[in-house]
Specification:
Blueprint (H helix, E strand, L loop, with lengths): L9 E11 L14 E2 L2 E2 H12 L4 E5 L3 H9 L19 H14 L2 E9 L8 H13 L4 E7 L8 E4 L2 E4 L16 E3 L3 E5 H7 L7 E5 L11 H15 L1
Parallel strand pairs: 1-4, 1-5, 6-11
Antiparallel strand pairs: 2-3, 5-10, 6-9, 6-10, 7-8
């Protein structure tokens, strides 16, 4: 990847979609292009991004030739190859995003907003991306991502201690679930962010971060083969 070109930056460019998809995957081999109900799982992220019409460019950051070919087949661009440094197990998502943004700037393209969509997020929809982008812009946010409510209040969790179950927070033992503050977790699908803030803070999250709430049927974390099977079951139930 050549990032030494100091071209004059184009101003006024809107949103860039970055889908990070390296070739290595230990728990699920070739995870990012594994077949998910008839097509490579990365295709769902690419198609949702393109269908949303939010982005001026939808690109895949990869070190893998086969992933690059599949990404281009489904309409994404692969203008440069990910560096070896950011293709190992220790590179963070932010490392990859910064590399991509700097590479585009050296090509003379300066985007105001970015969105990182993970390649294993088949439940992401065009409408979800549109809603998120509009909220980011309308509310002057630094970043935004989808969250899901915990199905059971974590405040009433229990732990094993010497083989016995004990309350993690005994003060909540008799509190009704509906009286506890709702808590949410990252859905692990995508992150919208203002590019200048990302470059300044080297973090997606900032002082002005918000989210959209999505249901249990709108996401599923895929870390192993069992997760994959459950995700396919949920997808069939929702869409087929």
């Amino acid at each position: 990847m050549d990032i030494n070109n100091n071209s004059t930056l184009s101003s006024g460019l809107g949103a860039l979609c970055i889908i990070p998809a390296r070739g290595g995957s230990k728990r699920i081999p070739r995870k990012n292009i594994k077949d998910f109900l008839g097509k490579p799982i990365i295709a769902y992220s690419i198609e949702a991004a393109i269908e949303s019409k939010v982005f001026e460019e939808v690109m895949v950051s990869t070190d893998d030739e086969e992933i690059a070919e599949i990404a281009q087949k489904y309409g994404a661009k692969v203008p440069f190859t990910r560096s070896t440094k950011n293709a190992n197990d220790f590179a963070t998502t932010v490392d990859v995003l910064v590399e991509v943004i700097e590479a585009y700037r050296n090509l003379g393209q300066n985007f105001e907003t970015g969105c990182c969509i993970y390649p294993t997020a088949p439940f992401v929809s065009a409408s979800m991306l549109q809603q998120s982008y509009q909220k980011l812009q309308n509310e002057g946010l630094d970043s935004l991502y989808p969250v899901q409510r915990f199905s059971f209040p974590p405040q009433r969790s229990v732990v094993f201690e010497n083989g016995k179950l004990l309350w993690q927070n005994p003060e909540n033992a008799q509190v009704r679930s509906q009286d506890l503050t709702p808590l949410y977790h990252d859905a692990g699908q995508f992150y919208f962010f203002k590019i200048e803030q990302l470059l300044k803070n080297k973090s997606i999250l900032g002082e002005k971060t918000s989210g959209i709430i999505i249901s249990e049927m709108d996401a599923h974390d895929i870390d192993n083969e069992e997760d994959w099977q459950v995700a396919e079951f949920k997808y069939r139930l929702k869409y087929q």
